[in-house]
Amino acid sequence: MSFSNNFLWGGAIAAHQAEGAYLEDGKSLSTCDVMHGGKGRFAEILDTNAIRKNIESQNGYFPEHIAIDFYHHYKEDIALFAEMGFKVFRTSISWARIFPDGEGEVNEAGLRFYDSVFDECKKYGIEPLVTLSHWEMPIALTKKYNGWANRALIPLFERYAKTVFARYKNKVKYWLTFNEINMSFHALFLGAGVLVDDESKKEALSYTACHNQLVASALAVKACREMLPGAKIGSMVASMVAYPYSSRPEDSWQKMELERKNYCLTDVQARGAYPQWLKRYLSEKKIDTGITAEDERILRENTVDFVSFSYYSTSAVSTDPSVAKDKGTGNIFGGIKNPYLKSSEWGWQIDPIGLRVALNFLYDRYQKPLFVVENGLGASDNIEADGSINDDYRIEYLREHIKAMKTAVEEDGVELLGYTSWGCIDIVSASTGEMSKRYGFIHVDRDDSGNGTLARTRKKSFFWYKELIAGNGEKL
Fold it and tell me: Do residues 138 and 96 touch, judged by C-beta distance below 8 A?
């Protein structure tokens, strides 16, 4: 069978990468509002001293402060999404816009903004797919509690989730809890708002923060089912397909270890319990995440309805030191450069077949419907003399990945709810803070220094994706 008639085609953004208006209408600073732009951004995220300075002093250029000003352009942008034929639009709600301090009084102006966004989507028959937490935690919670390292955030997040469920129960049918929840293993401040002053405690802080997020996620699932009986709520993981560099058994074991850790949090969200290997590992390392019998019950009884994931590239792994030194670039997950694959301008290796692998791996593992909620190519775009942008490289990337996705559905029997390409309109890159790393079907006139008119222009890929959606993925 091919894509169903109700297959959800669309695109995705995140509030912090698009909205701007970072202190407007009562919003407070969020975690992503304190990161400078530039290719060294991840190094800064990992530097607690640098982040502390950024929190206390807003000197320098912070791309998310204005981003593409979706906050004031959302009607224009959603109209363009509708012109492409979107069935679904994935975005996030900024926690810092709803509860500026993470607790205390609710900000009515923030709630009204998302009312307007979702109403605009409904005007065109577009279903919102809403992420509750996409790296937009109020910075006040880092300063007061050190973010998700503290269990105090669990009831605060539950209150936030219940607040938006109650407000948008007639407007939003599809929800996600935490974006790329496994990112907390790789960038603890980005994923969990946690600052690490003692490197020897970093691993314990990571697992503790992840556990607290898992309990909060399960409580959000519980609240969603009770308050929105017709809705669907899912998890979201950054997928990472890794190939053994050789047929050495050690390389295959390393691949398994990487995948096991990458998906262990989704295991809890989809299966309801920690995998046995992780329980043993935490015990051996004497890492106490604070898990209680009540936590275990909450996790067991509130598993997600579907599993969503991001997919951009793959990597290779090897235990051979002479090979392992040839590191891949661009992707925070690291790995070794695969000699059989081409790389993007930012060093991410392009592998459409890897998406089919990921779809089968996840469906076999969880036996739940899947949703591809991020997939795309970050590239520099050239504007021609006539104003056109001929991004054939983006069309090729998406075409080949959607072909692989189609094969997974038709030949492998994977149950897939939908597909939202990442950065359907140019936005601030999360990995680098640049505007020049563009993903969108729609060009936004804004550069890496914050200059530009913010004018929107349709790229060649805009018309290609419009035709693809109209044919329900058959015109590839």
Answer: yes
Backbone angles phi, psi at 235, to 5 degrees: -95, 170
The DSSP code for 30 is B
Q: By the 8 A CB rule, do 338 and 349 touch?
A: yes
What distance lies between CA 139 and its chain's CA centroid? 19
Q: Which residues pair with 188 in a beta bridge?
A: none
Domain CATH number, residue 147: 3.20.20.80
Kindly state the average pLDDT of the residues 14-26.
Answer: 98
Give a yes or no: residue 280 inside a domain.
yes
Could you list the residue range(s) of the whole structural domain that residue 441 is in?
A: 8-470
Q: Distance of CA 70 to CAs 174, 260, 334, Å? A: 21, 38, 32
Q: How many domains does the chain have?
A: 1
Residues 6 or more apart whose CB falls under 8 angstroms from that of 400 comprise 352
| Burial readout 270-287 (b: 16 or more C-beta within 10 A, e: otherwise) | bbbebeeebeebbeeeeb
Residue among 113, 112, 128, 132 nearest 69 (CA): 113
Active site residue 384: no
- Separation of alpha carbons 84 and 8, rounded Å: 13
Find the catalytic residue in 76, 374, 396, 400.
374
Q: Give the β-pairing of 314-317 and 306-310.
A: unpaired
Contacts of 45 (CB under 8 A, 6+ apart): 35, 51, 187, 189, 190
Give the whole-angstrom CA distance, residue 291 versus residue 279: 11
Instruction: Answer yes or no: 180 catalytic.
Output: yes
Residue 108 forms part of a structural domain: yes
Rounded CA gap, 142 and 201, in Å?
Answer: 17
Q: How far apart are alpha carbons 280 and 47 in whole angstroms?
A: 30
Q: Residues 44, 180, 400, 434: which is the catalytic one?
A: 180
Look at residue 295 and give its three-state secondary structure: helix
Query: pLDDT at position 329, please?
Result: 58
Residues 6 or more apart whose CB falls under 8 angstroms from that of 364 comprise: none
8 A C-beta contact, residue 181 and residue 220: no
Measured CA to CA, the distance from residue 365 to residue 263 in angstroms comes to 10
- Residue in the block written with tokens 């030194």: 325
Question: Which residues share a beta bridge with 393?
Answer: none
Q: Which residues of 123-141 are buried (b: 16+ CB within 10 A; e: fewer)?
A: eeebbbbbbbbbbbbbbbb
Contact 223, 158 (CB under 8 A): yes
- Given a contact cutoff of 8 angstroms between Cβ atoms, the answer to whether 348 and 364 are in contact is no
Residue 332 banded pLDDT, cuts 50, 70, 90: low
For residue 296, the model assigns a pLDDT of 98
User: Is 113 within the bounds of a domain?
Assistant: yes
Tens of pLDDT, residues 28-42: 999 999 999 998 898
